[in-house]
Write a structure and sequence with these properties.
With about 475 residues, the chain is α/β, with parallel strands linked by helices. The strands form six sheets. A seven-stranded mixed beta sheet has the order 12-15-16-11-10-18-19, with helices on both faces. Helix 2 packs antiparallel against helix 4, helix 4 packs parallel to helix 5 and helix 9 packs across helix 10. It is globular and about 75 Å long. The mean pLDDT is about 95.
């Protein structure tokens, strides 16, 4: 039986750290402590105390940007330049939580609207929802930890987080800093455990809110095992469609969509994957996108000039290559890429007109692969964009705002970008999939709202 995990660099396999796995007794102790904390209101932190801890945490993060960047790049393989952006986003996420704490408030409910409701005053009071359990993905190891820990703590919920086994170091560092910033015992704990013990936590009735970021197969399975009454938010990724109209600024579109497709080797839940290009410009568009893909620097994530690093492990590299090979066998034209490089990386790949039945057309690739499809009528592109159960972020490129607004209305997506790539995100906007892509809403202020519940107080008095 495995008793520890080895965290290795996905680029060169170097051992970064070996971490012991918690056994069932240790996991139960963490859960019991978090629940006991929530049940004991005398131990709850006041809003100003939470703010002070978060402010000190933010200052520590600002002082350690370089260290946090290298940790994220080493364990996750995201290039240094993008890992630094992730760290700065994570710091901003803490700031957003600090600012939003003072905006969480209840409201007065009108009374006296009927004779039966006379002489009453009513208002709601938001309270923390309870123990929050978070299970995270590998692709943004620090920022995902911030999004799953900080909103919960900010509203007064104890948090247990199980980071991805391949990238736990950033979450561990974040919690260490919070404790150095004065976080009392049992408020936030990292649990490194096997799947069996993780599933036991998911099933536990002491969990009031379950936050999951990962594959749809695992997420929906875990949701079916939640205890009655447990709230949840799940983000499962998508297969982001983009429609490019004939009147588009092609150079600008290629620059944006190339970045959106190959950022973090395509290992992003809203990565550009399916681009529907009007037939009148497909030759020029594809030629320029291929030139972009070939110019991207692939390699060591610690090299400040690297734009595409490794896939997270060899299994994912083999799977991506198999999907590309199958797509070509099923009729796709391979315009560039299509093979592994440097042992752990995969070249940015552009496929033209894959079959609608190919895996690259039907499922989330999670690799540096982008598919181009030609169309003649706009409605055809909209219908094909909406053909999958996945529905997350999408985009439309056109100079015609009337057409853009029509497409925005018709696309089945939780967010539609106009003249921008599908991977755009800021952390104060609502973020989350619909249909098979997920349930619930992320984004710092939206997560904070989801992690509270309202209590109604009604006061009866003859003097009112």
């Amino acid at each position: 039986m495995m008793t520890s995990i080895q965290v290795r660099s996905p680029f060169n396999g170097r051992l970064l750290q070996e971490i012991p796995l918690m056994d069932s007794q240790q996991v139960e102790e963490k859960m019991a402590n978090a629940y006991a904390l929530f049940q004991d209101r005398s131990r709850w932190l006041k809003p100003y105390e939470r703010i002070e801890i978060l402010e000190r945490t933010k200052k520590m993060m600002e002082a350690r940007v370089e260290d946090l960047t290298k940790i994220a790049a080493l364990e996750g393989g995201k290039p240094y330049q993008d890992s630094k952006v992730e760290v700065l986003r994570a710091i901003n996420g803490v700031q957003l939580a600090i600012e939003y704490i003072g905006q969480i408030r209840g409201e007065q409910i009108p009374m006296g609207m009927t004779a039966a409701s006379l002489n009453r005053l009513a208002f709601t009071m938001p309270e923390p929802i309870g123990v929050v359990l978070s299970i995270s993905a590998f692709n943004h190891p620090l920022n995902l930890a911030v999004h799953q820990i900080i909103p919960a703590f900010a509203v007064g919920c104890p948090v247990i987080i199980k980071p991805a086994s391949s990238t736990p170091l950033s979450a561990i560092e974040l919690v260490k800093m919070m404790k150095e910033a004065g976080l009392p015992a049992d408020w936030v704990e990292v649990v490194i455990c096997n799947r069996e013990n993780a599933e036991l936590m998911v099933k536990d009735k002491r969990v009031n809110y379950f936050s999951f970021i990962g594959s749809a197969e695992v997420g929906w399975s875990l949701r079916s095992k939640l205890a009655p009454g447990t709230h949840c938010a799940m983000e499962h990724g998508g297969s982001a469609p983009v429609i490019v109209q004939a009147d588009t600024d092609i150079d600008e579109a290629v620059s944006l969509l190339g970045k959106g497709a190959f950022y973090h080797a395509g290992q992003v839940c809203v990565s550009v994957q399916r681009i529907y290009v009007h037939k009148s410009i497909v030759d020029e568009f594809s030629e320029k996108l291929v030139a972009y893909a070939k110019a991207v620097k692939v390699g060591d994530p610690l090299d400040p000039f690297t734009e595409v690093g490794p896939l997270i492990d060899s299994y994912e590299q083999e799977r991506v290559h198999k999907w590309v090979t199958e797509a070509v066998e099923e009729g796709a034209e391979l315009l560039c890429g299509g093979h592994k490089c440097m042992e752990t990386c995969y070249l940015p790949t552009v496929l033209l007109n894959p079959s609608e039945e190919s895996k690259v057309s039907k499922f989330e690739v999670f690799g540096p692969i982008v598919c181009l499809y030609t169309y003649s009528k706009l409605q055809e592109a909209i219908d094909r964009s909406n053909s999958l159960d996945l529905a997350f972020q999408a985009s439309i490129f056109t100079r015609d705002m009337d057409k853009a607004l029509d497409v925005v209305n018709q696309l089945n997506a939780s967010a539609v970008m106009v003249n921008d790539h599908t991977a755009f995100r800021v952390d104060w906007m609502p973020f989350g999939g619909r249909d098979a892509s997920g349930i619930g809403v992320g984004g710092i202020p939206y997560s904070m709202k989801e992690m509270t519940r309202d209590k109604l107080m009604v006061i009866r008095s003859k003097s009112i």
